[in-house]
Amino acid sequence: MLQSKFFCKPKKEYPKEAEVISHKLLARADFIEQTISGVYHFLPLGFRVLKKIEGIIREEMCSLGAQELYLPVLQNKNLWLETSRWQTIDPPLFKLKDRHQKETALGSTHEEEITDIVRKRIKSYQNLPLFLFQIQDKFRNEMRSSGGLLRTREFLMKDLYSFHTDEKDLIKFYQKVKKSYFKIFKRCGLKAICVEASPGTIGGELSHEFMVISESGEDRILVCQKCGWGANIEKVGEIKKCYLCQSPLEKKNSIEVGHIFNLGTKYSQAMKANFRDKDGKERPIFMGCYGIGLGRLMAAVVEVHHDDKGILWPEEIAPFLVHLIPIENIKRVKKMSEKLYQGLQNRGIEVLYDDREEKSGGEKFAEADLIGIPHRIVVSEKTLKKNCLEIKKRSEKRVKLIKIKQLSGFTF
After folding, report:
1. Which residues constitute the domain of residue 384?
2. Is the peptide bond before 15 cis (omega within 30 degrees of 0)?
3. Residue 176 CB partners (closer than 8 Å, separation 6+)
4. Taking Cα atoms as reference points, which of 158, 136, 138, 129 lies closest to residue 59?
5. Among 173, 213, 176, 174, which Cα is nearest to 193's?
């Protein structure tokens, strides 16, 4: 991508309303822009990162054997009345009336909708287990939106739902999802810890959150440094010792990047989602649900991966892998830069080529550090005289000189 054509306009200052570092950097670097409280535009840089995260999640969900579908944002009030959550879910639903005065709501979660779909189609134990997921917009009527993408009113979410004949099979899959989540977060450059959590108004038998330790996090968790057990304070209160080994607990600020629930038969009983077992007896389906907010995950990555100059994107979710920067407007430098740009593209490497002639080298470097692309290639008359290029990792201070002919085999 030519930077002169790329729709990205980094700012010199942080937005006044931004408080946490992820909001400051993502807004200043032009990844996102707030439109109203708790609602954000994802601009081309931000959308590229979002799609990378989405790709990782989709790949890991499919590896679990889950099938993807897409459910509507506008939800059926009657389904919510079946589970008695129309008035009780917290945060409350965004409710609206159409031109016929029929009441509906914007989906904040999809347990009712997915249960309705399954109860119409699953009649026998032979059809179970079943795993369905979607990646779709959600709407939460939050009392207070804060922290940029960390707490919003509209957000992209992956929600996976599983359906089983019994609790034993549900728990087995629940543990598989745990492992899958750790893999997702690791691929995104995050070290997450799994803690016991309150199920809230989603409900169910068991619930766990995946947390990333961060001072800007709104959640408070207790963690045992000896055995690794942890819990959200909302779940266990201000206890002093670990439930498992009785060691002292440490209190940490954290960001929730994922939440999973063993729902048991809460929704299937309320909505009569049953199946016939081997003996022909009708039983309620056991269910689990498993969520990841993509925007919040993106913000959590920035909270962890940044320095005083800008963002340091992990390679697998970076908007581009390489930032190609010529720093002199002379024919030889321009010609070599264009050749390198074409060569990188031919290798299937995503590259942002800063071909802007009106920008100085210093301005280009400052913007490159702010945007945070993992690898930088600098082309200058000085290096070309040595038949070399300057290569630098965004996360390192060390600059490496390599011969131009070596670039074709260089591994980023």
Report:
1. 320-409
2. no
3. 64
4. 158
5. 213
Which three-class secondary structure state does DSSP give residue 340?
Answer: helix
Which residue among 304, 334, 357 closes a domain?
304
Report residue 184 as tokens.
Answer: 């997702």
Q: Rg of the chain's alpha carbons, rounded to an integer? A: 25
Whether residues 282 and 143 share a domain: the answer is yes
256-285 per-position pLDDT tens digit: 999 999 999 999 999 999 999 999 999 999
* Residue 407 token pair: 């670039």
Q: Is the distance from CB of 85 to CB of 57 less than 8 angstroms? A: no
Indicate if 356 and 298 belong to the same structural domain: no
Q: Which DSSP state fits 125?
A: G
- Would you say the C-alpha torsion 161, 165, 167, 173 has a positive or negative sign? negative
**Within a domain: 265:** yes
Do residue 279 and residue 326 come from a single domain? no
Q: Are residues 244 and 96 in the same domain?
A: yes
What DSSP letter does each residue of 245-296 carry, written as one string? T--BEEEEEEEEEEEEEEEETHHHHHHT-EEE-TTS-EEEPEEEEEEEEHHH
| CATH value at residue 361 | 3.40.50.800
The C-alpha atoms of residue 15 and residue 21 are separated, in whole angstroms, by 11
Do 289 and 387 share a domain, yes or no?
Answer: no
- pLDDT tens per residue, range 214-252: 999 999 999 998 999 999 999 998 899 998 999 999 999
Instruction: Tell me what pLDDT residue 145 has.
Output: 87
Provide the number of structural domains found in the chain.
2
| In 37-100, beta strands by DSSP E | 39-42, 67-68, 74-75, 94-97
Contact between 177 and 50 (Cβ < 8 Å): no
**Of 140, 135, 169, nearest to 291 (Cα)?**
135
Those residues whose C-beta lies under 8 Å from the C-beta of residue 329, and which sit 6 or more positions away, are 357
Whether residue 272 is found in the same domain as residue 344: no
In the listed set 271, 304, 337, which residue is the last one of a domain according to the structure? 304
Q: End-to-end CA distance of the chain: give it in Å, rounded.
A: 18
**Which residues share a beta bridge with 41?**
33
Distance of CA 285 to the CA centre of its chain: 29
